[in-house]
Amino acid sequence: MNAWVTGANGFIGRHLVRVLADRGYRVHGIGHGAISDAERHRLGLVHWLNGEIDAANLNALAAHSGLPSTIFHLAGGSSVGLSIAQPFEDFSRTVESTARLLEWLRGTARDCRVIAASSAAVYGAGHEGAIAVDAVTLPMSPYGQHKLMMEQLCRSYAVTFGLRSTVVRLFSVYGQNLRKQLPWDICCRLQAGERNLMLGGTGAEVRDWTDVRDVARLLTAIDGKPQSEAFQVINAGSGLGTTVARVAARIAECWGGTVSVQYSGVVRAGDPTSLLSDDAMRHTLPFDWKIPVEQGLADYVSWFKDQIR
User: Is the distance from CB of 295 to CB of 288 less than 8 angstroms?
Assistant: First the structure.
């Protein structure tokens, strides 16, 4: 199987490439950042193209690797905060790149399947309990708006041109090699010697935390199941909610020593109070979540400490 991964040099992309390669895929990547030959071999990439997702680069990748059977489209904006600070850049990274990719596929590789990473941020606020894929979408940030626009492009090309695409709405993905967001921020502050942490929000915010190792397996499992409809949406969440306060407490516990955590009560713009997936996905795929958040956070702290030794 000949698979391409856009954003293969990113946090999720690197994990996904390794899983695909271990399962016998020939994996080629496109995105930003230099990757040495040694690192490319370690990741499992046959070929890496450092550049924008545009027709010229996609043609060059196809000339080198052949046409793909599946494209895992992970490229795009990855931060609510950055999307608020630089909304046009986030639009370009998420929406424009997807439009260029789909248009290239329309003219060059119509039989290729797209598995596109979206976000639970498309749901916005006001949802209580588990969220189903047919729930109302009211994004609160440019990040969420642009992910929804990306989804709509995939739907449009499926309906109009028959391009097969599966949109995967990721929830709170964390894990080894993540160098931003809450787990990274807390570990950095603890490493700097802080023991009295003041975090934003209330601590009661609920998220569906999913370990990136499980997410990579899930994306691979999705490709392993034939797609009966031209367009489909899947929630990539475990259905288990964990509060921010519990996550912070678990990280502090795994770090060791006496740590006090308090909350400012100031909620960041674009952050819903609850994002929790329903568990309908597990009934449609041969897949189970294997890494509970307690274990995943312990593994993350161990990884972080290994990086600073």
Answer: no
Strand partners, 73: 6, 116
DSSP calls for 3-60:
EEEETTTSHHHHHHHHHHHHTT-EEEEEESS---HHHHHHHTEEEEEES-SSHHHHHH
**CA–CA gap between residue 153 and residue 99 (Å, rounded):** 7
Whether residue 271 contacts residue 201, with contact meaning beta carbons closer than 8 Å, is answered with yes
* Structure confidence by residue, pLDDT tens digits, 230-244: 999 999 999 999 999
210/174 Cα distance (integer angstroms)? 6
> What pLDDT band is residue 279 in, cutting at 50, 70 and 90?
confident
Q: Which two tokens stand for residue 26?
A: 């020939």
Residue 308 has pLDDT above 90, yes or no: no
pTM as predicted: 0.95
| DSSP H helical ranges for the chain | 11-22, 37-43, 55-65, 80-85, 87-91, 97-108, 142-161, 181-191, 212-224, 244-255, 293-307
Which of 159, 157, 73, 67 lies closest to 114, judged by CA? Answer: 73
According to DSSP, residue 141 is labeled S
Beta carbons of 4 and 46 less than 8 angstroms apart: no
Which has the closest alpha carbon to 170: 212, 140, 205?
212
Burial of 243 (0-12, 13-18, 19+ CB in 10 A): middle
Nearest to 254, CA basis, from 309, 214, 295: 295
- The one-letter code for the residue type at 304 is F
Strand ranges across the sheet with 206-207: 130-131, 274-277, 206-207, 242-243
Q: Is the pLDDT of residue 309 over 70?
A: no
CB atoms within 10 A of CB 48: 24
Q: Alpha-carbon distance 129 to 200, whole Å?
A: 22
Residue 196 φ/ψ, nearest 5 degrees: -120, 95
Measured between alpha carbons, how far is 94 from 107 in angstroms, rounded to an integer? 21
